[in-house]
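Lab notebook, bench 4. Still working through the backlog of constructs that have no structural model yet. Next entry is a single chain of 115 residues. Request: give me the C-alpha cells for it.
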Amino acid sequence: QVQLVESGGGSVQPGDSLTLSCEASGTISNIVAMGWYRQAPGKEREMVAVIHESGLTDFANSVRGRFTISRDNAKNTVTLQMTALQPDDTAVYYCAVTHPPFASWGQGTQVTVSS
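Model written out:
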C-alpha cells in the first residue's frame, strides 16, 4: 500500500559526503516519524537518524555531529545529509516511515566508503 523510493547511494572515499533521499507514496493517513536505518555485513540493523513530525531528531552516537536529517511534510520526503564519511559507515541504508498503526520500509541503498 505504501512505497518508499530511495536515492543517493554510491561509493565514496573517507571524508567525502553523500546525501540520501526518500519519498513516500500511497495511502498514508498520517506520518509520525521518518528516518534511516542501516545494516552492515555481520552486524545488526541499527537506527541512524530519525525525525519526528514536530522536527525533533535523534541520532546514533556514531553519526552525531556528522549527519543531518530533514523532512518535507507536504511532499512526504526525508533527506539524510552525510559528511565526513568513514569506512564504518559502509552499509545498506533503509528508509523507514511510521504511520500508526503501520510502519513501512524502503528497498535499501548501498553506501560504500573506502580508499
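Notes after review: The CA atoms of residues 40 and 54 lie 30 Å apart. The chain is about 0% helix and 55% strand. Flag for follow-up if needed.
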